Amino acid sequence: MAGIPKSDLPTSYPTSCLLGRVNVINVITHEEYRDKQPNGPLRSPYVFICADPHETLIKFPIRGKHKIYKLQKHMHIAAKKNLT
């Protein structure tokens, strides 16, 4: 990943919970990603370029796989109150 030393990245992440939020600043194609990161991991046709991450203090349990989806209103309100 450009700009982030590998040693600063977590080796694992909690699963089945809301970790926080990011701003999606761009979406690039598989080909664009390969041009910028020829040795980077990629399994998807598109890559989300994200910035400004904020972790939640509480890891809210949530069902589903890694994806983008709308939170229920009560979960959204609670998560916003718990951002770092």
Radius of gyration: 15 Å
- Main beta sheet strand tally, sense and closure: 2 strands, antiparallel
The geometry reads as globular
Order of helices and strands: EHEH
Number of strands: 2
**Number of helical elements:** 2
Instruction: Please mark out the parts with pLDDT under 50 across 5 or more consecutive residues, or reply none.
Output: none
Computed structural class: alpha+beta
Portion in beta strands: 25-35%
Instruction: Measure the end-to-end span.
Output: 23 Å
- Overall average residue pLDDT: 85
Into which percent range does the helicity of residues fall?
A: 10-25%
Word description of this protein:
This protein is an alpha+beta fold and 84 residues long. It has one domain (14-81). It is built from two helices and two strands; from the N terminus they run E-H-E-H. It has helices spanning 30-36, 73-81, and strands at 17-29, 46-61. The protein has a two-stranded antiparallel ribbon with strand order 1-2. The model has no long low-confidence stretch (mean pLDDT 85). This is SJCHGC05193 protein.
Please describe the topology of this protein:
Elements (H helix, E strand, L loop, with lengths): L16 E13 H7 L9 E16 L11 H9 L3
Antiparallel strand pairs: 1-2
Quick structural gist:
By secondary structure, the chain is an alpha+beta fold.
Defining key terms:
84 residues, alpha+beta, 2 helices, two-stranded antiparallel sheet
